[in-house]
Amino acid sequence: MPMTRTTNGEMLLVGLMSGTSLDGISAAVVAFSERDGLVHADLRHFAQRAYHDEARARLAAAMHGASAQEYCRLHTDLGTWLGDAARDAMQGAGVSAHEVQAIASHG
Fold this sequence. Notes:
Structural class: alpha+beta
Oligomer: single chain
CATH superfamily: ATPase, nucleotide binding domain
CATH architecture: 2-Layer Sandwich
């Protein structure tokens, strides 16, 4: 099924990245379009959201082992943090969630 596009033919996507450096989450809003058989990407907004000290400590500790309960809590919390970063990036780009075709997270 083809993805819907904005009125000008673009597809807006949000990309999220949180790496092992534990510095925080990077978020980008990118508009993709096709012209003359080529795909073009236009970065609309980029933002970084630093982890607060407690989050960084929890993530670092979990890399060396944690209880199932803590892994479940981190799973939920990380999802919230990623969602917050995506929302901030969309606001920074001046787009609403219903204009975005997909949100992707590398991890």
